[in-house]
């Protein structure tokens, strides 16, 4: 029995096989290139996926050898993260939805290490016990890096609950107005009045003293201190008024200063009144101060 083989069929099969081998070779080379690039940029999860393709036995021997060597390095450096969660009572929580950098990571926690690229990552945990956001730095080469969290309920509700007592607490009454109203003493007022009158008395004494001295120096008065008509008056009278003004003014000024300086603030003594009036007579003049307490 003779078997006849069609030459066109053999040629077509050969072409198909050759094309398939070419496609496999191109895929191996592409995976090798991508795997090496991911490895150099420390995207180890993606690098491992590509290097597993080009390290397969179907790839050319040279490509397969390089990819296998790189795959060993990637597997050694690729870190793994173990996520665990507990509630406020310390019990383990299994049903926790975890996202990393906005991408799904897991929906159940089983205590197994999950491969992850090294670097800083934003973890978000969501469960019936509460939610939590936490930034974690994954260390390259650490195969069992633990990320443990405690979910105690919504973090947003805590500040509102703690702020409520503070908002409802009554403000403490201020006693400042009372202390202000009692800080002024009537004796200090008397002191200021007496001091002002004392200054006025000193001024009166000075004025009359200057007039008497001027009249005496001008010769308008004789040896008996009798002055010519049209002058200010007897030198003796002017001198007496000047002396009284100086003495009374000095005493009043000293008394007023003593009351202002030494009367304690907040004193509750009764109100005091002072009546000041100048007094002049034919033989002299003076200042009279009368007070009532």
Give a verbal description of the structure.
The chain is α+β, with helices and mostly antiparallel strands and 293 residues long. The protein has 3 domains: 8-77, no CATH class; 80-153, Carboxypeptidase-like, regulatory domain (Immunoglobulin-like), CATH 2.60.40; 184-292. Helices cover 48% and strands 21% of the residues. It has helices spanning 7-40, 44-54, 61-77, 157-168, 176-181, 186-217, 235-262, and strands at residues 80-87, 97-100, 103-106, 114-115, 119-127, 130-138, 145-151, 273-281, 284-292. Helix 6 runs antiparallel to helix 7 (235-262). It is rod-shaped. The model is unreliable at 155-169, 175-182, 267-272, 280-285 and 287-293 (pLDDT under 50).
TL;DR of this structure?
This protein is of the alpha+beta class. It has helices spanning 7-40, 44-54, 61-77, 157-168, 176-181, 186-217, 235-262, and strands at 80-87, 97-100, 103-106, 114-115, 119-127, 130-138, 145-151, 273-281, 284-292. The protein folds into 3 domains: 8-77, no CATH class; 80-153, Sandwich (Immunoglobulin-like); 184-292.
What is the element layout, followed by pairings?
Blueprint: H1 7-40, H2 44-54, H3 61-77, E1 80-87, E2 97-100, E3 103-106, E4 114-115, E5 119-127, E6 130-138, E7 145-151, H4 157-168, H5 176-181, H6 186-217, H7 235-262, E8 273-281, E9 284-292
Parallel strand pairs: 1-7
Antiparallel strand pairs: 1-4, 2-3, 2-5, 5-6, 8-9
Number of domains: 3
Helices and strands: which structural class? Answer: alpha+beta
Based on DSSP secondary structure assignment, what is the total number of beta strands? 9
Oligomer: single chain
Average pLDDT, rounded to a whole number, is 74
Beta-strand residue fraction? 15-25%
